[in-house]
Amino acid sequence: MLISIPLKSPTFAPEKEKILFEGFKKACWFSFFRLYQIFSKES
Q: Between 19 and 33, whose confidence is greater?
């Protein structure tokens, strides 16, 4: 992924951090896909 956001917070355990990051990637990909669908319908 091009966007890398540091999740280096001391309150997060490594595995929690990993789950959060995976969820974040999925959310980004999903919203990108939705936008792509909308734009391809309009054109």
A: 33
How is the chain classified by DSSP, letter by letter?
---------TTS-HHHHHHHHHHHHHHHHHHHHHHHHHHHHH-
Mean pLDDT of the chain: 79
Mean pLDDT value across residues 7-27:
77
What CA–CA distances, in Å, run from 18 to 10, 21, 23? 14, 5, 9
Contact between 7 and 17 under an 8 Å Cβ cutoff? The reply is yes
Could you give the dihedral angle defined by the CA atoms of residues 31, 35, 40 and 43, in that order, rounded to the nearest 10 degrees? 180
